[in-house]
Write a structure and sequence with these properties.
Largest sheet: 9 strands, antiparallel
Number of helices: 16
Structural class: alpha+beta
Shape: globular
Strand content: 15-25%
Length: 552
Amino acid sequence: CKIQRHPRRFGTLAAVTSGGLLFCKGILANAKLETKAVGKETKIANWSNTHSVTGMLYQPETLEELETLMQMCHENNVKLRPVGAGISPNGIGFSSKGMVNLSKMNNLISIDAGKMQVTVQAGMRVSELVDALQSHGLTLPNYASIKEQEIGGFVQAGAHGTGALIPPLDDTVVSMKIVTPARGTLNVSRESHPHLLDALKVGLGAFGVVAEVTIQCVKRHNLEEHTFTATRKQIVENHEKWLRDNKHIRYMWIPYTDTVVVVTNNPTPKPRNLDDSEEDEDADGERLRPFRNLLVSSLKKISVEQREKLGMDFDLIDSLNFAECRDWLLKFAALDTNHVKGINKAEASFWRNSEGKAVGDSSEMLQFECGGEQLVYEVAFPTGTLDNLQPAVERKGRTVEARTQDVAFVLDILDEVERRGFPAPAPIEQRWTRASKSRMSPAASPNLKDVFSWVGVVMYLPVKDSKTRNAITSSFKEYAKVVREVGSALPSDIYPHWGKIEMPKAQKELENDRKWLAKRYPVDLFTALRKDLDPKNILGNELVDAAFPRDD
């Protein structure tokens, strides 16, 4: 298979600021080596503009340039934090002291059709890989909600999709090439170094820069998606069967309503019909009518000046899609609980009128609308096996009795939110994966039959006004605390997705969170590997060092 090049610029959210081009030897005054990799003073913001950083960004074009750059930074004790597409809600790849991005190393290297394995450079985006695999009749086993991640970040941060028999995507990696500061370039595979591979995957960019990855693929296939709604009681009654019977399943719980959106996807020989299944404008307008009616009534309550400030006009309402309607409505009063209840009620109506089926390629069907700029907190916890899901922990005052711990967890969050009158928008999203062999995965387990549930809560940032965004952020921190409080009652506790964890600033809270993480993860192994592969800590940043401090 010939190498395929996908030329493109780094990230859609990267903005180059003043500073110009500087050769590494100009920045590293004592360097004895030279490299063609150049640095640009660059500002990067994540997709929700909740984290941003300005720092020197290097973008090598070859493995040799990356190796030389790494050696120079190591010898001169210069920071070189790996950053992918910059998508993670917490900006886990950001560092103002120096970053390296591999978007110019985005080639497909080889495909082994017999083994159904593909080797790519780590700067390739998931969307590019999907396109490259199609002509070979292959695809990835699963997909996260979006496809714009770079493969290196995809693996290092522990991205996941949904499916109780399918592991997080890091566990589909069978080998990888990682460029380290002290040990040079390591080739680690399932065959040669299985334990080391499991330790280095989901490495948070702290061991080296992943340069190449070999991924286990599956045959390309279509999925039939079925979207329908259920009540909370119906979820309790049917959950165990639905989880067993569907290859992919996710729930979207809508606070302050008795509506849960259920989306299943299963393999089918049926041909793609996504274009044929699209609703006509009249039907779409009917589904959106509750949103649009609420928008009209809300707009009437504010002045023309306020409408102009918010960028809203009556004439634009009929052109808005579902996610845009929700964003517009939240612009009025994102922290007014009664207003949010009205929006959630409209959303529940929208989904009840959206039941249907559609068929498409798996890479299409497993993507979904995430909404506008937002704050996200997602956690994972073990929930038994498909044959024996963990029973619900008893909780006083639970409004809907649950049978299994995964469903009970969300019901308890909903009870707390609704009891406190918290302005929680929709949805609370719930997905599942099989366990992962990766030691630092939130879904790590030696028993690969274990099933993990992933639950995410969200609050949207519909306006640019910093005062309003800060108020929403403050409120969201309280929301995350509710999730932590409910999770602490579980025998296993809960642990965040690495792209969505935020470490506290207060020293006492920070120490408590470090102890919390140490209960779940092999911190001694993680720290020992960091010291061996990166003794000068040139790859660390504020977040990683806060979670896993070094004593050297």
